[in-house]
Amino acid sequence: MKYLIIFFTLFSFSINAQNVLKFDKRNVQCEDKWVAYQMDKDSTYMFGFIYIDAQAGLTLNYEGKFKIDNKGKFNRVENDVNSKTGFIIARLQPNRVAIAEIPESKFKELNIQKTPEWLKNYKSDENSVERLYNWGYMYNGWNECEKALTFLEKADKIDPNYKGLQTELAFSYNALGKYDKAEISLKKAIAQNPKDCYTYKELAFTYTNTANFEKVAETYKTMSKICSEKVFIQETAYNLAYEYYKIKDKVNFKKWKAEVEKWANSDSQYIKNLIQMEIELSK
């Protein structure tokens, strides 16, 4: 019976901890949040505050460890961080490791503030177009396009002509399947800079995903005249060839395969993939 009581005590503690901390977030989803990492072997949780440094990117302000007692209380353990600063700065790479957002109800137990005093040093010019664009650009780079739009659309209201903004907006819209909005933004971008090859590549992507193959072909023709970035031209032709492959249009597939071959080396992955598609179409 003694062992059974111990078992239920441990089981109850485990359930309690799981209810308090929900490990359902990734680090790129936790800007300006207090977070905890999965429990260590010694039953402690590492915790800190995630924020974005304009130069360094995603950053963790590591502040130590805590344990959760059988009543669900968070108890900080003896401080193991830098004795002079009280914390350690760690640059983060976006990953899929599950972390937990610490509930605000536990801040007092950990002796932390919802918004650390030092964070104000990183919050200057929050509503400037430059900052909004940079944050949107970063989140797009992390494939957090919906979050990116929260910054980019604010920037668009302030200065729609800010360099690179419309193309960055279109990247988000394309990723989220909002192709009508992407096309509008890309046409604005082309009006501002009619020789930007990356913008044309995004426009071709928009038309490809709306099955407007004639406009893809027109965009490709423009790119082949003005672009020095061959990889964008290859990608555009390849994507169109792939679309024709999917609908088993052998004539147009062959036509666009030939276009890819104009720009790609024989050992490129594009060519290898197209050869395999051609074999499949011939069966």
Automatic annotation (TrEMBL):
TPR repeats lie at residues 129-162, 163-196. The keyword Cytoplasm does not apply. SMART domains: TPR. Residues 1-17 form the signal peptide. Pfam families: TPR_19 (PF14559). The keyword Signal applies. Keywords: Signal, TPR repeat. Transmembrane segments: none annotated. This is Tetratricopeptide repeat protein. It comes from Flavobacterium celericrescens.
